[in-house]
Amino acid sequence: MKVFYRPEQVATSDLPSPSALKPKLVVADWLADPGINAEICSFEPADTKTLCLAHDAAYVRGIFSGRCENGFGNTNTDVALSLPFTTGSMVAAAQHAVLHHEVVCSPTSGFHHAEYADAMGYCTFNGLMVAALALKHAGLVDYVGIIDCDAHYGNGTDHIIKKLNINWIEHLTMGKHFSGSDDAQGGRFEAWLDQAIDHCRDCDLVLYQAGADPHIDDPLGGILSTEQMSWRDRRVFEQLGHLPLVWNLAGGYQVTGGDTEAQRREPILALHRETARLHAAIFG
Ligand SMILES: [Zn+2]
User: Fold this and answer.
1) Where do the domains of the chain lie, and which CATH numbers do they carry?
2) If 204 and its partner were Cys, which of 34, 38, 141, 209 is the partner (CB 3.0–4.6 Å)?
3) Any idea what the Cα angle at residue 123 is, between residues 89 and 155, rounded to 5°?
4) How far is the CA of 154 from the centre of ligand 1 (A)?
5) What contacts 16, CB < 8 A, 6 or more positions away?
6) 253 C-alpha to center of ligand 1: Å?
7) Which residues lie near ion ligand 1 (Cβ < 5 Å)?
8) 258 CA to middle of ligand 1, Å?
9) Ligand 1 center to residue 110 CA distance, Å?
């Protein structure tokens, strides 16, 4: 399993979301797991020009100069420095997926609430949209699918699609349709995902947010059972795994007891570990 990871994509300051630390934790977890044949791939950070494909240039400059607040509501330099690497991971993973016709992983979060010129909800730059636009501009794709299975509505993705008048992206976001476990029962989540998958069958690239926060025990999600979570990943991989596909981490907020950050985040790591093991079992 190719994982597009660089240590620079991790922001280390004390932040209100654990997502900025997650790449480091999941990568360590996967490298220690014999069931996951993780291969770390390096990449170049996204440059300002690339970020400006999906964002207002003054906003992008403002984030790096500290004039604009990031998605955590602060102007911390270490967050700004990490951002070209989080989006760079997604761009590089998408390029690799298309050029080699593979399914690969970008261990990233913090994209889908970021609008054209606004950060919100722990998201500063919309790496999903930057990657889609970068590949489109490079002539590598005509039609892109985004299946967003984070628990929350990908408002930023919709905002940029509308702002730039884009008609070549299929954007399916579960957060628009499910807000609690009652919504997802009686086969309703399964029917929604199958429909989302059908919309992406003709895409040249699929970006799949395999979020951990829809899990029933997540304090900010609470929608899908453990069985539904595994079914979800298997369904996407089996139905769309013949296409170039990148999956990423998106949100996840469960915490448990423990001395180390990895121990405290074990419920989230366990969910991502299942996705990674399934990837390894299906695609190697
Ligand atoms: Zn979320």
Assistant:
1) 2-283 (3.40.800.20)
2) 141
3) 110
4) 9
5) 72, 73, 122
6) 9
7) 150-152, 213, 251
8) 24
9) 9
AA letter at 156? G
CA of 127 to the centre of ligand 1 (A): 15
- Token pair recorded at residue 112: 């889908």
Cα 251 to middle of ligand 1, angstroms: 4
CA 281 / ligand 1 centre spacing (Å): 27
Ligand 1 centroid distance, CA of 60 (Å): 23
CA of residue 205 relative to chain centroid, distance? 14
Can you give the pLDDT of all 284 residues of the chain as single tens digits? Answer: 999 999 999 987 677 676 678 899 999 999 999 999 999 999 999 999 999 999 999 999 999 999 999 999 999 999 999 999 999 999 999 999 999 999 999 999 999 999 999 999 999 999 999 999 999 999 999 999 999 999 999 999 999 999 999 999 999 999 999 999 999 999 999 999 999 999 999 999 999 999 999 999 999 999 999 999 999 999 999 999 999 999 999 999 999 999 998 999 999 999 999 999 999 999 99
pTM tops 0.85, yes or no: yes
Rounded to whole angstroms, the Cα distance separating 251 from 268 reads 9
Determine the distance separating the centroid of ligand 1 and the alpha carbon of 117, expressed in angstroms: 20
Q: How far away, in angstroms, is 139 Cα from ligand 1 center?
A: 31
What's the chain's length in residues?
284
What's the DSSP call for residue 139? Answer: T
Q: Cα(173) to centroid of ligand 1, in Å? A: 11
